[in-house]
Design brief:
This protein has 132 residues and is mostly helical. The chain is built from five helices and four strands, in the order E-H-E-H-E-H-E-H-H.
Length: 132
């Protein structure tokens, strides 16, 4: 598990009782380290709240290296925050249409939606989601 800061690594180690091996990286912009670590695993779960666009690209590059070297399937799971698609009805900053909207991973092209949405309202986390 990649973390920024020894304090986070220590907390994970003590909380999870040795079930994870935290690796401290100074920045998620350290693409060489991210690529190297990803190249050593078959599955990457990017659940961070990073606003560094370079991170998902480096992780995917590492997974591609893993697939090429091992011949096995590799998987990338990227989580996104609701703020990337939220309509912000309370703040009034963005309202696409009145009423709630429910996204469906099968029926909706969320990638296309986020790209169009980012053209009208730029948001760092959405930049990361689009890159992933």
């Amino acid at each position: 598990m990649l973390v920024r800061g020894q304090d986070k690594a220590d907390a994970l180690s003590s909380t999870l009782g040795g079930h994870v091996k935290p690796l401290v990286v100074p920045s998620f912009n350290d693409t060489d380290t991210l690529t190297e670590v990803a190249s050593e695993h078959d599955i990457i779960i990017n659940a961070g709240t990073t606003a560094e666009v370079a991170a998902p690209s480096a992780l995917l590059k590492g997974l591609a290296q893993r697939k090429k070297a091992s011949g096995r399937d590799v998987y990338s799971i990227h989580t996104s925050g609701a703020s990337s698609v939220g309509d912000q009805p309370i703040t009034g900053k963005y309202v696409e249409k009145p009423g709630p909207r429910v996204f469906n991973d099968i029926k909706d092209d969320i990638y296309a939606y986020e790209k169009v949405r980012n053209e009208t309202q730029r948001y760092n986390q959405r930049d990361v989601d689009i890159a992933a």
